[in-house]
Specification:
The protein is mainly alpha-helical and 268 residues long. The chain is 55% helix and 4% strand. A hairpin with a 6-residue loop joins β1 and β2.
Length: 268
């Protein structure tokens, strides 16, 4: 018999844990017990960076190309994106936002602000979708009765993503969910704190958000460069400040001397 891997057991445990959380939310049980996942599971930490990102996404077929760009801009889970409906999209006034109505936990219900590229994608989808769903099916392998009406299948998107990964020879953990890792990693690199990332991602805890943020070499190098610039600026700032203080004292002394020279008491 083949050995059961930790990842297989953890997936089963995740289903049980989710069921218990729902039972607690529905007040069927008083409190869901804490469950610890098995150690030894390989962690997927791949992040699409810089020019690699553009090369990878540029070679994706539709609809995966559009969805991948949207996921990287919003940090949504794949399932949340496929289930997104127009009544949860708000584009009037400002850059707009979307509302995620349900997810893996209570915190999954959240508002996600839109960047300009994500908004443009939604505007374009308005001209394509003929149903309540934002991202819809079409193409040769889809029944024409479902074109532009049925929601996208995450399995179709995952297959297109995996095929592109194999074409580029990327690591095993470069999966469709990597778009979420990429979005949250970029958010952290832009200066967002862990609690902000948690709110945007809809994570149940900050600890989960920390696992999704992976400093890449470019980010680490920028941080070190900024540290060097800060220390240079700090070192050079001391001398000018001392000179300014000294000059101000001299000016004040001269001013006092002139006043004393011009005062009647001084002349007497």
């Amino acid at each position: 018999m083949d050995e059961v891997k930790p990842a297989t057991i953890n997936r089963a445990l995740s289903v049980i844990r989710r069921s218990l959380y729902l039972a607690e939310e529905w007040k069927l049980i008083e409190r869901a017990p804490k469950m610890k996942m098995l150690e030894g599971e390989r962690q997927r930490e791949f992040v699409l960076t810089g020019t690699q990102r553009e090369e990878f996404i540029g070679g994706l077929p539709e609809p995966c190309k559009t969805v991948a760009r949207f996921l990287i801009d919003t940090g949504l889970r794949v399932g949340e994106c496929c289930a997104l409906s127009w009544d949860r999209v708000f584009l009037d006034g400002g850059p707009g936002y979307i509302y995620v109505a349900r997810g893996k936990s209570r915190r999954a219900r959240r508002y996600v602000p839109l960047m300009s590229d994500a908004r443009a994608i939604l505007e374009r989808q308005k001209t394509i979708s003929r149903s309540q769903y934002v991202f819809v099916r079409f193409g040769g392998r889809v029944d024409k009765d479902l074109w532009y009406t049925a929601p996208l299948s995450r399995h179709t998107l995952s297959q297109q993503f995996t095929k592109r990964r194999q074409e580029m020879g990327l690591p095993w953990d470069a999966v469709l969910h990597s778009t979420r890792h990429t979005a949250l990693t970029d958010l952290g690199a832009a200066g967002a704190d862990a609690f902000t990332i948690q709110a945007i991602a809809g994570h149940a805890s900050v600890t989960t958000s920390q696992r999704y943020v992976h400093p890449v070499p470019e980010t680490i190098q920028r941080a070190v460069n900024k540290l060097g610039e800060y220390r240079k600026a700090e070192a050079s700032s001391h001398r000018p400040k001392l000179e300014v203080v000294q000059k101000s004292v001299e000016v004040a002394t001269d001013f006092a001397t002139v006043e004393n020279a011009q005062s009647p008491a001084a002349s007497n």
